[in-house]
Amino acid sequence: MNTANILTISRILLVPVFILFFYLRIPYATIFALIIFIAASLTDLVDGMVARKYNQVTDFGKFIDPIADKLLALAGILMLMSVDKIHPVIAFVLIAREMIMSGFRLVAAAKGQVMAAGILGKIKTVTQLIAICVLLITEYLPPLFYYIGYITLYISVVFSVWSCVDYIVKNRSALDLRNL
After folding, report:
1. Within a domain: residue 127?
2. What's 155's domain CATH number?
3. Does 180 map to a domain?
4. How many CB atoms lie within 10 A of CB 87?
5. What share of the chain in percent tops pLDDT 90?
6. Which ranges constitute the DSSP H helices of the chain?
């Protein structure tokens, strides 16, 4: 197991710890949940850099990294939805996008096509993670941050839909629509 894959696995292992702290009813538990969420988010940035720099790109890493990303983001979205900080329709759109993209990538992979994430998807991820971080701790921040969190969330929704459509259009050859 190389360093990049260990970082990815650590992101997965941090998800239940994040959820635990999110639900603990102790002082500053959400601050601890935020710290865990940020640490897990940073492993996504670092594992990719390590994998490329030290030639640690593996099939396992290609498989597990997107799963770890989705587990973390979806945990944040669902936790915030559970306390009415994210509307269920917003959560549905974000979750549906991830399911569509995962299904599309599976079809492409079955045909031997590997599709890298585009810039729109990366912007979606960054805005989504920022929104989750801000919305986690709005009760500790000045009211302006409440609006910043929601504006960033809505920006992430726009980029979620846009990147999904863009990805499918650019890679439509992976879908064989002649046999519908």
Report:
1. yes
2. 1.20.120.1760
3. no
4. 13
5. 74
6. 3-23, 29-53, 59-82, 88-110, 119-136, 143-170
